[in-house]
């Protein structure tokens, strides 16, 4: 899965879970400030990403997921392992 495909899937998940128009999401989008997520939303997103991509995210990794770019970078790393 290339980065463009990964972004499309991540954006779809974020759009659905946060009820945000998909066109409002880009790599620089901040989950809390730009997309209106709270800590429960962030937890839900992590669970969906783990299920969707068959990975396990550690607490210290989850804490670093502030922007969509952070999510993409971590998923790319985890998927390629």
TrEMBL record:
Residue(s) carrying O-(pantetheine 4'-phosphoryl)serine: 39
UniProt keyword annotations, A-Z: Cytoplasm, Fatty acid biosynthesis, Fatty acid metabolism, Lipid biosynthesis, Lipid metabolism, Phosphopantetheine, Phosphoprotein
Compartments where found: Cytoplasm
MF annotations from Gene Ontology: acyl binding; acyl carrier activity
Modification comment: 4'-phosphopantetheine is transferred from CoA to a specific serine of apo-ACP by AcpS. This modification is essential for activity because fatty acids are bound in thioester linkage to the sulfhydryl of the prosthetic group. 4'-phosphopantetheine is transferred from CoA to a specific serine of apo-ACP by acpS.
Superkingdom of source: Bacteria
Domain spans labelled Carrier: 1-79
Pathway(s) per entry: Lipid metabolism; fatty acid biosynthesis
CC per GO annotation: cytosol; membrane
Pfam families in the record: PP-binding
Annotated GO biological process: lipid A biosynthetic process
Family: Belongs to the acyl carrier protein (ACP) family.
Functional description taken from the UniProt entry: Carrier of the growing fatty acid chain in fatty acid biosynthesis.
The protein's name in its UniProt record: Acyl carrier protein
Species of provenance: Fervidobacterium gondwanense DSM 13020
Record lineage: Bacteria, Thermotogati, Thermotogota, Thermotogae, Thermotogales
């Amino acid at each position: 899965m290339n980065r463009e495909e990964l972004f499309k899937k991540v954006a779809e998940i974020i759009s659905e879970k946060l009820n945000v128009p998909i066109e409002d999401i880009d790599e620089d989008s901040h989950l809390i400030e730009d997309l209106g997520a709270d800590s429960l939303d962030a937890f839900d997103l992590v669970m969906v990403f783990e299920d969707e991509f068959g990975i396990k995210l550690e607490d210290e990794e989850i804490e670093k997921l502030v922007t969509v770019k952070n999510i993409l970078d971590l998923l790319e790393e985890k998927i390629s392992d």
